[in-house]
Amino acid sequence: MPELDGIELLQTIVKNYPTIPVIIFSGMGTMVDVIKALRIGAWDYITKPIVDLEILHHSVGKALNHSELLHQKKNYQASLENELLLRTEELLQKNTMLKQEIKNRQIQETLVLHAKQEWERTVDAMPDMVAIIDTEYNIVRLNKTMLDRTEVSPMRNS
User: Fold this and answer.
1) Residue 134, SS3?
2) What are the two backbone dihedrals, phi and then psi, of residue 98, each rounded to the nearest 5 degrees?
3) Direct distance between the N- and C-terminal alpha carbons of the chain, in angstroms, rounded to an integer
4) Degrees (nearest 5) of the Cα angle 118, 122, 126?
5) Rounded to an integer, what distance in angstroms lies between the CA atom of residue 111 and that of residue 155?
6) Alpha helix (H) ranges present in 126-152?
7) What is the pLDDT of residues 128-144, one digit of tens each?
8) Segment holding 129, helix H or strand E
9) In angstroms, what is the C-alpha Rg of the chain?
10) Which entry of 29, 32, 58, 143 is 20 to 30 Å from 5 by CA?
11) Is the bond into 21 cis (omega within 30 degrees of 0)?
């Protein structure tokens, strides 16, 4: 070849079009050339003259099968990347929803705490003695009036 030899052409093709199957046909190659071509990226190396066309048929078939596998791999990888994007988007949406739910629950907790504090202030302001007792007759809470008038403590049973 006038501008490039076969190895240089192979290097250019493999560099620019790595998925294109390249089968080298040479009438002058040595075993060193074959090994070099295969290491660079040739899919096969056939010496001329081709006496048995079955060798050519086998080489082309193998290259086509290899090419199809690369194509399937590329499609599968694209499919996986697409699935990853979809799942990532789903997780981001769910994460946003969870953050909103956490915020709503924190608001609810704050409202409940304020209501509890207001209720406690109201009960403590009552002039009547008030005691809250659980189902096992343990004192849970006494209002301020009852604490001031008795020696009963919410920490012990009555």
Assistant:
1) coil
2) -65, -40
3) 109
4) 170
5) 27
6) 144-149
7) 999 999 999 999 999 99
8) none
9) 42
10) 58
11) no
Both structure tokens of 114: 């304020």
Listed in sequence order, the residues at least 6 apart from 130 whose beta carbon sits closer than 8 Å to its beta carbon are 123, 142, 143, 145, 146
- Parallel, antiparallel or unpaired: strands 23-26 and 44-47: parallel
Specify which residues 141 forms β-bridges with. 132
According to the model, what pLDDT value does residue 157 have?
45
**Residue 156 pLDDT more than 80?**
no
Let me know: does 154 contact 120? Beta carbons within 8 Å.
no
Amino acid, single-letter form, for residue 12? T
- 14-63 pLDDT, tens digit each: 999 988 899 998 887 788 888 999 999 998 998 888 888 999 999 999 99
